[in-house]
Design a protein that fits this description.
One of its GO terms (cellular component) is membrane. This protein is α/β, with parallel strands linked by helices. Helix content is about 55%, strand content about 10%. The two termini are about 55 Å apart.
Amino acid sequence: MYVENYVFALRRTDYFIGTRNPSPFEHFWSLGVEEQFYLLWPVLIVVTARCASRRTGSAGPLPYLIVLGVVAALSFWLSLRWTHTVAPWAYFSLPTRAWELAAGGLVALLVPMLSRTAKPVAALAGWFGLVLITMACVQLDRGTLYPGTAALIPATGAALMIASGCAATRFSVTRILVLPPVRAVGRVSDSWYLWHWPVLVLAPVILGHPLGPAGTVITIAVPAGLAALTWWLVENPLRFADALRRSPARSLGCGAAIVVVAAGVAVSLTACARIPAPHGPSGAPLAFVTAAGTPGASDRPDEMLRSLEAQAEPVIAASDRVRVAPSNLTPPVGDQPTLLDNECLIPRRPERSPECVSGDPHADTRVALIGDSNATMWFSAFEPLAEQRHWQLETLTKAACPPMDLPIHSSDLEREYFECDRWRAWLLTHLREEHPHLVVVAMTRTYTAELDGVGSYSRTWNDSVNRLVSELRDTGAAVLLLGAIPTPPTDPQVCLSEHLDDVVTCTPARTVAVRADGIAAEQESVRAAGGSFADLTPLFCTRLRCPLVIGNSNVYLDDSHITPGYAQILAPVMSAFVDRALNGG
């Protein structure tokens, strides 16, 4: 639990944007930050005390104020920088959050001085602190860059309210804080925090539908009741047990025993949990054979593409007839990697991509892979090609941001996605400066007018595709635009996990998963601007259906991405598409 915050930082979790399968213990990250601070702070106190006593013979509050002030200043400076560059690390890590804890320490050390504050000033400070906290509750949202400067609002508000209590008056905010209902909430606040997130995550699963107004009330009331029960039946009996209060050894022993028992229960539940596993006959992976035996350059790319599609056709057709998932299904259901592990994919808030070069960094042939998370999805196919064919491959991708000039609205940020606009502008400038030989463009086609402001394959979409290809061609690059992958109507992994003995149930019809008219219109827009278009449908579908398992490959990561393993299998096909684009086809 005490390192969970760094796990989420490494996964590049956005705490304000819901993930597909959030952990019911995700909120424990803050306990990790807190405990890490508590481990380091005593060391700083001891070192400061010894240094101060050697220099002055005493250890008044000034040395500690200086140390806390330096810690707070450095931490806040780092928070400002990281919020704009590596936002998950800014949100979850101790170095960027220590200033908030240090602020509390500064207030505690300044109590003697604060107690002498003029009472009207103290009262105003307390009420102003309450206003700031209220502002934080109603003004900060998913679109706020946080922590950054925004974290000053609740942190300053809390510090002012606490500080004002040192010189309490009849008209201070303390009059509200001492009311019985407020004190009752304060008593169970820690427990309420621990309970609220599991209920929020599990309630939709238990209810079988998203939370509505009634569900929202439940997610507030149920954790409050559980918190009160925990405080009454568990916390207080342990906190005030005479046997434990009289003996530090017994207290430590009891704590250790609780940890051991909890760990034992967790391990036992994990070991006893029945995880469904496929048990059908082993499947052979889809494997392509090129004329040269390797996915190298071809001077007859159209002929090569026809050969590769012909090799895929019988494997896909045979897979469509398989009922029981193969025992060697790869990757296993529920064990898919996440695209967020790829550092080339920047989240929603940054507006520039980091340097992300693979293959041969000194190669003469430069290839750029650009787009949203679908472009990142294809990295597993293009990275081995870059190494085999001695390319310099630069990957420039941004979450939920197609590279065309479209007015995208972010449903996650709940506002216009202006970071996407700024990233696109930076991207085109960067490509004009770098002059790549080839630009590969990929993006999901699941954008809708209702959620994103523009729909895939609409006239606006296709016109912007045409303009993008023209702009990229003006840089001197050949352009390859990868067509859409089939889009299953439901989450493939959820469906497979429930139908491992009847995977055909999960197989969508081609007419449902593939927008043939949209693909044709987009292809026309690309070719009209001088680009090359890759129709990927034959690599996933028969004439009638699009199986979720091909050979032994678990094809789909979710309903809009394929697994890195299947993308890598398709590397020879991508190589042929590249050759066609470079040859002007």
